[in-house]
């Protein structure tokens, strides 16, 4: 009996990536480090004693302690947004079987932006609760449109066709956004800071609005992970294993769009987080979605939070929006990935 248990245990351990425990511990350490940096650094540097006072000594009412308390919401919001974008990128890459798929590359962010602009211009929306539903509608419609265009023609929805359809759609929708804003100065004033992508306007209200979408999206992603592994083997093999590929794609894509749309509504269109976080985990742990999806939440939170800190330091005494920082980091990486993909295809 003991030998049988040991054998079963060894078989199960084969499916656990070799460095998973080390990576998990490292992610927790980096996450804690990023939280400390986010609370302490910015236009005003806060010392260790003031950091402790702001977090644990509520009776202390100094300026630095209050600065720390004000940064708590921003830190939590950046962690949540990064986790959502990381999981969204992992799901979109798994559904499309495209290693460079990302909400920003497939045009989903731009679709959400267009609907928010339309909401501001034609329906006078002003609150986060209103933004989020318009952004989700735009994200869903754009995702369906891009996948439909990418599925046309011979071969169906290939990775290259999806990226081209996403790029073309994003360019067209960006033009519509500009066309709506130019004759309406009040829309431009309200939209221009949002469209860059920033976590600086975070509040407890935004966080409470965001949490249900975050929980639902990540839960669906984790539950779908094993089936997405089968999908990676091809539709025919996945169907033979009992996976309903059409339903799986629909559910997983819905979760990815939900996470991306909610984040875009509250923080603006922040790009490349899904691409970067997923590739870091895949490079270390392999291609098992049971580990890629949850761990992408950790790496996404880390990357976005540290990018926000860098933006605050680089733009001091003001700040550089996090969307600019992630684009500056992500664009060269995307070019490298695209070049490697081209070489492999040849």
From TrEMBL:
It comes from the Bacteria. It is a multi-pass membrane protein. The keyword Transcription does not apply. The chain crosses the membrane at residues 20-41, 72-92, 104-125, 131-150, 162-182, 210-234, 265-285, 292-314, 320-339. Pfam families: FecCD. Keywords: Cell membrane, Membrane, Transmembrane, Transmembrane helix, Transport. Its main location: membrane. It is found in: Cell membrane. Belongs to the binding-protein-dependent transport system permease family. FecCD subfamily. PANTHER family: FE(3+) DICITRATE TRANSPORT SYSTEM PERMEASE PROTEIN FECC-RELATED, FERRIC ENTEROBACTIN TRANSPORT SYSTEM PERMEASE PROTEIN. This is Iron ABC transporter permease.
